[in-house]
Amino acid sequence: MVIGINTINGAMKFNLAERLVNHFKGKTCAILYQEDYINSGYIIPPINGEVDWETPESIDFSNLRYDFIWLCENVDIVILEGKFPFHNKEIDNRYDKRIFINADYETFTQIITKNPRWSNKPDWYLTHMWESYKGQSKRAKDLNNLITIDIKKNDLTKLTKLLEAKY
Fold it and tell me: Is 80 exceeded by the pLDDT of residue 8?
């Protein structure tokens, strides 16, 4: 089974991936963290003088795709979590399940402003992050095999049951 998880930074992607691994005990599992495949800042297109982390160009899809495909061929469960897990056709075509964790603006700002990486960014950049997230949300709605969960409900038990029923 191949699973992609998409949401904002700090919105439980890591926790969900870990819970899924625990859920599939007895299976070989691997988690790929898209943040481990970030391009160098000088490669990423800037926006108003800031590195634009909110663009798929921030990800080294070449190396990510290589590792992802190898894992898909060698382990039972592969989980890719990140901001842009559904932006590469070769990767996207392999998903059995796609998970989008939905957040409203209030939750988004609470999560982002608590993160030291983002708390010192100018207000316009936080707005840029929100607009990028909304674009991800809109794009995700058009995908097949999508499970959407609300971050406020934190309904991971329901999610693991849905995945188990379809595995």
Answer: no
